[in-house]
Amino acid sequence: MQRFAVAAMAAVAGVLALLSVGCVDEGKYRAVLLRNREQDKIISEKDAQVAALNERVSALQVQKADAQRMLQEKEDHLASIMRERDEVRNAFNKLQDIVAKMTSRPVVSGTGLPEKTVLEIRGLAEQYKDVFEFDEATGRLRFKADITFDSGSNVVKPDARTAITKLGGILSSDVAKEIKVTVVGHTDNDPVKKPATVALLKELGKPSSNQGLSEARAEAVAQVLKAGGVDAARIATKGVGDTQPIASNAGAEGKAKNRRVEIFLQQ
Fold it and tell me: What are 140-144's contacts with CB under 8 Å, separation 24+?
């Protein structure tokens, strides 16, 4: 800006110098005037650019102030949420302490099972994941019948027997001694036809049907739990045959899922 002002002043000085001589060439005089007009035009353009830049700076300053205000509002809101979170967490911790004092031991919400017992069964399920699965939310253990028993048999296979025996050890500990155990046998809808199975059920005094087979298998699992240390008074058994399928019996895959033994744990 100063540079253009100096140039303009120099041009004016040049004109004055020519006028002071008294005799000025008309062509040179016009050239000086033309150059002076051009300088004025450039100065005006630069002034306009400076004004536009000043407006832009002002607008950016306003945007910056708005952004800082919004950022502060967000930070204040976040701080408020974090305070509320801490309050909820503290209230929850206090509630857990109350529950723990009432029950004299930690429990897993929804099942009433001791936390130590749940953790031990979870580890056992991971070790024998091909044998059974554990639903912590409901306290249900689901054993795959085809891995637990041979076809038409109520004799528990070695791997399943080992897993169930270890489960019995967990359930016979002091912390789990009040847990009730219900063993339920299930089958697919294929009728019982094998002579060996019919003879087995007859020997056990049960009907030669899926109902009889499901009862026999539930009782066999219960026997292994008892051998693992669980008091017989805590165990109940029942068979439901093919009345509670969890998959379609139209195909082999669905039938395999329906053939199962489930153990339900309840405090």
Answer: 140/262, 140/263, 140/264, 140/265, 141/167, 141/262, 141/263, 141/264, 141/265, 142/260, 142/261, 142/262, 143/221, 143/260, 143/261, 143/262, 143/263, 144/256, 144/259, 144/260
